[in-house]
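Supplementary Methods S3. Input chains for the assembly prediction are listed below.
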Amino acid sequence: MSATTGGEVDAMAGTMISLHDLTVSYRRHPAVHHLSGSFARGSLTALVGPNGAGKSSLLKSLLGLVPIEHGSVLLGVERQHIAYLPQRSEIDRSFPLSVLDCVLLGHWQRNGLHAGISAEARQAAVQALATVGLAGFEERALGTLSGGQFQRVLFARILLQDAQLILLDEPFAAVDEPTIDALMTLILRWQAEGRTTIAVLHDFDLVRGRFPQTLLLARKLLAWGTTAEVLTLENMRRMRATVAAWDEHAPVCNTEGED
Amino acid sequence: MLAHLYAILIVPFAENPFMRRALAGALALSVASPPLGILLTLRRMSLFGDALSHAVLPGVAVGFLLCGLSLPAMSIGGLVAGMLVVALAGWISRRTQLREDASLAATYLVALALGVMLISAQGTQVDLLHILFGNVLAVDQDGLLLIAGIATLILVLLATLYRGLLLETFDPLFLAACGGRGWLYQQAFLLMVVLNLVAAFQTLGTLMAVGLMMIPAVAARLWSERLGVQFVVGVALAVLASVAGLLLSYHFDLSSGPAIIVSAGVVYGVSVLVAPGGWLRQLMQRPHLRG
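Predicted structure tokens for the full assembly:
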């Protein structure tokens, strides 16, 4: 019934996240329904499914941002080693903050309220900006950036967080091809560095081309495994069949995980 | 000419102790208020201060009923009432489907009605006017200490929590994902707003305490896109409005609180016209650059 971190890690050496019968619901309607399975340490997984399939809810439940109604989440990493990229709509870009300051927020978990920003930390932020192709943008105000540029800034902030587990919620929504390529290079580099990454995506070609693992979700689990096994015609057909199946008068679910 | 200026600008303060105290109180408020106002506008809660100022009223009324026109009693009452309303509204928005602004709107309106009911049941019309509109020229030594003390406390709190306050305003989800307790910063911030309103109610009255917090803050946002600069500009504009308002009220025998707020209004009007983010700059479009 709870999200656990740290202590029980030893029992799951090769596993980064272990889900057991996880259910998250809003007003009694399940957004994630009896989901079990695990993400291997160092894996790169695409989280795929129709709108309303519970993809964002799953990521938020891993972070404890939404209450877990049933089942459990076991994380093989401390909280300060998780980085999270929310959906873009949730951030106010008119905020009077410079690009460099925004990237420096990636040090928050280590620096907290009062620790000063060292010269190295600052240099790391400048370096991160250069890595995402925004060298020279340090002093620009956030409000002057385009959508794709802002997304690059958020990736630079994740670079600074130096996280072991990276959760990306629709990182490429309304982002152009060159930017996707640049950010995809970063994601593949994270995989090479042994970090675990989960990304919510809608572009099946991108998933087939770049993501080794795929989790196909439509509130309940449809398929989970290597991308080639998961994105089959049969599974895609099943996914479409579950879209928009909202039942206002759904009966109470008491299957206890036999879904 | 110089002698003339001296007579207009300096003599009122030099020769009248009550004007000096009023100036000191107004300046203390001018330093603490605009940063809070700017943070409120950044949270898109510009009208929040207005609501909170009403929320303070029932506490002031209870203090007034128990001890008459006693500053400590009314201040403590106002502080308790404001914090209760903030905590209650915060609790409702966390535990129910209502958002913060909706729950606060409902809570403060009830608080205001309670306050007016209590005051008019016991006091006279004059007392009600005094509480609603304040009298900066009646600030005594204790009142001045209260205002200065609260202003200092607010500045210290702002400096201590600055990074967290900004992060909670800018990207609350990031803070939450990092395991930070965002609501703690939010409650601490709202507590500062309540404290500031309690400090200001005696000089400006509960209704106009918000003016010195919001008007210079909104004007400052037109002058720069940098937060630090906005803070400095906001404080400078508030100081200007305070001095101008006090002098106006002295020379033309006007009510002091409203005179300060109207002066702030003039400052705001000028900012809307000539500031970099204002109307004239939009009007005089300069040719675009080559890329």
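The beta strands of chain A are 3-5, 15-26, 29-40, 44-48, 70-75, 82-85, 165-168, 196-200, 213-218, 220-226. The first strand of chain A starts at residue 3 and ends at 5.
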